Amino acid sequence: MTGTGDSAVADTSGEDRLRRWRMVLGGEEDGTGCVLGGRDAAMDTALSALYGRGEGGQRSAGLGGSAPHVARWLGDIRTYFPSSVVQIMQRDAIERLGLASLLLEPEMLEAVEPDVHLVGTLLSLNKAMPETTRETARAVVRKVVEQLEQRLASRTRATLTGALDRSARTSRPRHADIDWARTIRANLRNYLPEHRTVVPERLIGYGRAARAVKKEVILCIDQSGSMAASVVHASVFGAVLASMRSIATRLVVFDTAVVDLTDQLADPVDVLFGTQLGGGTDINRALAYCQSKITRPADTVVVLISDLYEGGIRNEMLGRVAAMKASGVEFVTLLALSDEGAPAYDREHATALAALGVPAFACTPDLFPDVMAAALEKRPLPAL
Question: In the Cβ-directed half-sphere of 174, how many Cα atoms lie within 13 Å?
Fold first, then answer.
């Protein structure tokens, strides 16, 4: 009996393996001998429409150019697959099958699963978008922005508020703001053995940064096509920073031209629709503009978000960075601000910046608050 039971388990496991291989291989003559039915067959049809094989075994696809057909397919994959898989399949459909133009139709946008990559695609189509689609596109973008704000805003505000308070030590703190560890160390000579206590002649505490502007932050964002996800995240962070009264925030986007979107920071969706993804890159021109807006160098943090593929004047770009550093500006270079892994970037320019004391590195959205806190306090960055 035991042997029979084990055999049954083994057979079931073997059938499941064949079924999975059949789904992966995606063909009737795949050698598995497995026939799919029910939900498995429907999932296989949805996968084959995007990744299926055509004549001669060559990869092809069966989505066609019909918006209703594609909209139904988008609904099917949302039924059969988790959100993370749906987002990958959507991205593959847009990139492999040239379906970006169909996103200009409202019924298509209502069928998609919103994510950062979709927002990037919509922004790249912004100028070609008809008015009938624009409001639907804004709703899709706003949904993604709200999800990012919910995930990132509270921690960003808490982390940066703590950094600002720590950077403003005071000798006359309120009771709740006393740094007891530093106060005790500073008054150890006043220890009274008979009372087993320290008499604090000098209090050390954290200053509060609730009203006065303590720091200025300039986000300088490369809006070339490869930086789409970074533009989305940076716009959300820009809005969060702008909501903090103790930080004066400026947001600048650039390609070969420079656009200051600071006046739109109250709404990151407005910021995003003010960008124009694609085109060339002139980092030098963008930094020249940012440099002209610095009034308090010692209290300013400039964050350049770019893959550093410079189309402008390289030596002038490096000279501006060196000049800002020499004046007291804290300068941070992020090669990407996204969850997409290691980015492509200009290694020669990154090396040149590192020689100026400005290391360039990629940063995830979750790490960004810690990077900014370290920059505000002028201490080593956590990514290093």
Answer: 5
* Segment holding 361, helix H or strand E: strand 360-363
- Pseudo-torsion of CA 66, 67, 70, 72, nearest 10°? -110
Q: Which pLDDT tens digit goes with each residue over 264-291?
A: 999 999 999 998 877 789 999 999 999 9
Chain segment 130-175, per-residue pLDDT in tens: 888 888 899 999 999 999 999 999 999 999 988 887 665 555 666 6
DSSP 102: G
3-class DSSP state of 77? helix
Token digits for 157? 């505000």
Q: What are phi and psi of 248, to 5 degrees?
A: -90, 115
- Separation of CA 201 from chain center: 48
- What phi and psi values does residue 254 have, to the nearest 5 degrees? -150, 150
Residue 245 one-letter amino acid? R
Comparing C-alpha atoms, which of 93, 29, 86, 88 is closest to residue 61?
A: 93
Phi, psi of 377 (to 5 degrees): -90, 0
For residues 340 and 224, give the distance between their C-alpha atoms in angstroms, rounded to a whole number.
16
Q: What is the CA radius of gyration of the chain?
A: 27
- Closest C-alpha among 168, 257, 259, 271 to residue 210: 168
Q: Is 362 helix (H, G, I), strand (E, B) or coil?
A: strand
Name residue 363's beta-bridge partners.
337
Tokens of 215: 């720091």
Longest pairwise C-alpha distance within the chain: 94
Which residues, 6+ apart, have CB-to-CB distance to 85 below 8 Å? 77
Measured over the CA atoms of residue 99, residue 103, residue 104 and residue 107, the dihedral's sign is positive
pLDDT for position 54: 47
Separation of alpha carbons 285 and 308, rounded Å? 13
Pairing of strands 330-337, 360-363: parallel
In this prediction the pTM is 0.72
Residue 235 vs residue 383, higher pLDDT:
235
338-340-343-344 Cα dihedral, nearest 10 degrees: -120
Q: Are 141 and 160 in contact (CB under 8 A)?
A: no
Q: Are 218 and 294 spatial neighbours (Cβ–Cβ below 8 Å)?
A: yes
